[in-house]
Amino acid sequence: MTSRKGGEMSIAEAGPAEVDVAIVGAGLAGTTLATVLGKAGRKVALIDPHRVHHDEFRAEKIGTKQMQLFKRLGLEATLLPLVTPMDEVHIFRLGQLFARETHREFGFSYGALINGLRDALPPQVPLTVGKVAEITTGPDEQRLVLTDGSVIDARLLVVATGYSEAVRRAIGVNRVEESKAFSLSIGFDLAIAPRDCAYESVTSYGKRAGDRVAYITVFPIGNKMRANMFVYRQVAEPWTRAFREDPQKMLCELMPEISAQCGNFEIAGPVEVRQINLTTTQGHRRDGVVFVGDAFLTTCPTPGVGIERVMTDVDRLHSVHIPRWLETPGMAADKISAFYDDPVKIAADENGMRSSIYSKAITTGTELEWRIRRLRNNTARQLMIVGRKMRNLGQRRANAVAGEAS
Q1: How far does the signal peptide extend, from start to end residue (predicted)?
Q2: CA distance 148 to 91
Q3: At 128, which CATH number?
């Protein structure tokens, strides 16, 4: 095992032969779970094919509620240096300023976040860099054989491999596509610097159902302004190709109300597009192995509840289930099922799936129910905008009268 230097993670050249918990996948779920279990005194092996997590367009912003989950796990101090805080967001609806809200959010680059979390792994939880070649699971012991021949025996195997299918297939579970090509997430940097942007952060919602745009949100990550856009499109359709070819033109047409304040949407760097599928897992109730985060269920990022769902899995495993499982011999399927039947986990998963479906329907649904809901919501919002403008006008007139009287 290499020593820990300069705040960087330890790397195991050959993982511990026997551990309590082996975690395959050192993304958000795997790394945070390994950290909290290691700090609690559990013997943990964390396995991932890569020493450094590659740049990857995934989640890039969380709110206070999600940060509270990290705080609950004792990870807030680790996370804060890796994120950019923001305290004010301007919200545009129907092409007009709808609200200015004050609440704390945090922007980050996913790859940098994961690497920072890996660097903060406890010394007793080294990262084993390697690929899993063979997996044997059972009611008492789980065995992993890596491609370099090293062997890791564990009482419990945690699969935290995200969207990757190799380990899931080797174990024999199936990913069920509930809705393929459900949405697209689009990410890009703006040429404008945070100090030159009129807003600390801004969110502008789509105006027409036919545009199939949920919203665009612009926020700082370090010294750059980042944009995330969520649309109900497919990768190969003409709209997406046109957006890739000239994103600035299309953004100025879709969101003219904020274009000038956002540097006329001049883009710096590539436009990243990620297709989102809604998926569940079948055949997961089995001896010795538990699936967490996106390795178990995937939802749409548009409603902003994905990280909350993943960190709920980590919290419930760390604080409730794994301690109970390790108290007694064996790791049979009936033991593992307590996690999948956990009401807190079920609520988080159901909320993620329900929010995903609702967000798409309220944005694009053509059925009478959704057209009526949009009309009702937009009418109420328009009245709120008019009311605010009238109050502001009245205040300006009152100030003018007071000035004349003085």
Answers
A1: none
A2: 53
A3: 3.50.50.60
Asked if residue 135 and residue 49 are part of one domain, the reply reads yes
The verdict on 339 and 406 lying in the same domain is: no
Residue 159 has pLDDT above 50, yes or no: yes
In this predicted model, what pLDDT tens digit does every residue of 46-88 receive, in sequence order?
Answer: 999 999 999 999 999 999 999 999 999 999 999 999 999 999 9
Which of 146, 164, 122 has the alpha carbon at shortest distance from 47?
146
In this structure, are 388 and 351 located in the same domain?
A: no
Say if 104 falls within a structural domain.
no
Residues 298 and 347 in one domain: yes
> How high is the pLDDT of residue 305?
94
Distance of alpha carbon 45 from alpha carbon 290, whole angstroms: 15
Provide the domain limits for residue 382: 368-406
Do 327 and 343 reside in the same domain of the chain?
Answer: yes
